[in-house]
Amino acid sequence: MRAGWRGRRVRNLAVCALALAAPLVGACKPAETAPLEASPQAAASAGVATQESPVVLFLGTSLTAGYGLPAEEAFPALVQERIDAAALDYRVVNAGVSGDTSAGGLRRLDWLLRLPVAVLVLELGANDMLRGQSVDQLRGNLQDIVERTRAAHPGVRLVVAGMRAAPNLGARYVRDFEAVYRSLADRYQGVLVPFLLEGVAGRPSLNLADGIHPSAEGHRLIADQLWPVLEPVLRAPPAAG
């Protein structure tokens, strides 16, 4: 019993420490509940776009899904509003799933690739980090996602949403984890958002009560910061196949 208690205590302390990392600053929670609550949201917004419009696919975690919020308040839906206001013919599909890892995103990718994907916005890795999974595994899964997407849609354009690692995982892990996103963008000629939660993480007024997931106001700031990066991608010609 004492050994089991000690193991649970170590896991809980690990999550407390991870909560000090920039992407997930917040209250200490048991490991079983912090990154893993399952409440998948998949939503497509439509304004000037139609079902035949090219798709901007947001593939990600609870951050993309808009955990704890109506789908229309999540940043992908707010990006759709900006797309419509700019009279661009794209349809946003929010394929964020709470608790998802890079492996989970890879497993569900084939179904999503039936859509006419023109732009892939890739936001995966935070839950890999929280589970202490290897950086090599993360890198391989993300590369497979991009390569499968390009095989199905050769002209797809890529936006990589970077995350940060918890410092208690060690300097080498932090360095290697954060380098995955830049190397992915460089390798596949994508556009990098160095840290998706810049200006949002660690600010209570921009997060829900759990201190981890952005509030509606936090999602508005994410959309405001993402749009100047994404708009030129939408206006650019398809990538070379």
Q: Overall pLDDT, averaged? A: 84
Could you name the CATH topology? Rossmann fold
Number of alpha- plus pi-helical segments: 9
Round the Cα radius of gyration to an integer and report it.
18 Å
Q: Care to count the β-strands?
A: 6
* Count of folded domains: 1
What are the secondary-structure elements, in order, as H or E?
Answer: HEEHHEHHEHHEHEH
How do the strands line up in the largest sheet? Answer: 1-3-2-4-5-6
| Portion of residues within helices | 40-55%
CATH architecture: 3-Layer(aba) Sandwich
For the largest beta-sheet, the strand count, sense and barrel status come to: 6 strands, mixed
**CATH class category:** Alpha Beta
Terminal CA distance reads 58 Å
Overall 3D form: globular
Residues in β-strands, percent: 5-15%
Low-confidence stretches: 1-46
Q: What's the CATH superfamily, by name?
A: SGNH hydrolase
Word description of this protein:
This protein is an alpha/beta fold and 241 residues long. The protein is 42% helix and 12% strand. The chain has helices at residues 2-18, 62-65, 75-85, 102-107, 109-112, 126-130, 135-152, 171-187, 216-235, and strands spanning 43-44, 55-60, 91-96, 117-123, 157-161, 191-193. Strands 1-3-2-4-5-6 form a six-stranded mixed beta sheet, sandwiched between helices. The longest helix is centred in the last third of the chain and has 20 residues, at 216-235. It is globular, with a radius of gyration of 18 Å.
Task: Write a compact overview of the structure shown.
By secondary structure, the protein is an alpha/beta fold. The chain has helices at about 1-20, 60-65, 75-85, 100-105, 110, 125-130, 135-150, 170-185, 215-235, and strands at about 45, 55-60, 90-95, 115-125, 155-160, 190-195.
